[in-house]
């Protein structure tokens, strides 16, 4: 196969893959701007003419903005907690010496092999005994103190840093916290950025735990709110797609403005 033909085949395959990846999002946009009549009279992949903003106006006129704010608060708190507690735990596992350190670390990391669905019921029972069902505490507590993946990622990055930097700081009289904040953390910006991006995306798209632990509007998030957009025994597709479009917009904005850092995070995650 000649080089031009090979390049043409490659670009055609990439274009087909890109179309398959983007097509579901295109359907969300097209469906969100259709009336109920247009949904039944036009093909799903064709736009409704004229476009209608009735679905967006209806969903924004209800409690959906409140659920969107709840999601923003939940994502911000989880991301902040993950960055703080994960960094401290990873530093302890990577740099501090104490008995049973490696055994404790690998036992903790081994919990990544346990599906999250297995732990949902025990977590719910614990939160019920603590009277934390349908509260912000119950929503945040299981995940705000760090995750095995995040601690593993940060620990591996800490261990990749030269040990001589830490030894030189100790000779100058620096303590563990001074070494962490003034020497190691500035060098860990790529790993911190990776962890922040992963946490924001996973927290924003979280569904199973918020669905189980919350039942009132005070703590309901957008994923749960969208799943509840049903009319009788059917589903109002236009309304659900309007909610999905609103929930999708922040993630698209994050990708557009932080594309370079997202690509770097993917590379860093693969290397680690």
Can you describe what's shown?
By secondary structure, this protein is an all-alpha fold. It folds into 2 domains: 1-52, no CATH class; 62-271, MetI-like (MetI-like fold). Helix content is 75%, strand content 1%. The chain contains 15 helices and 2 strands. It has helices at residues 3-32, 36-41, 54-60, 64-95, 101-110, 116-129, 136-144, 148-160, 163-171, 176-187, 189-204, 208-213, 222-227, 237-257, 259-271, and strands at 230-231, 234-235. It has a two-stranded antiparallel sheet. β1 (230-231) and β2 (234-235) form a beta hairpin. The chain is globular. Pfam families: BPD_transp_1 (PF00528). Belongs to the binding-protein-dependent transport system permease family. Keywords: Cell membrane, Membrane, Transmembrane, Transmembrane helix, Transport.
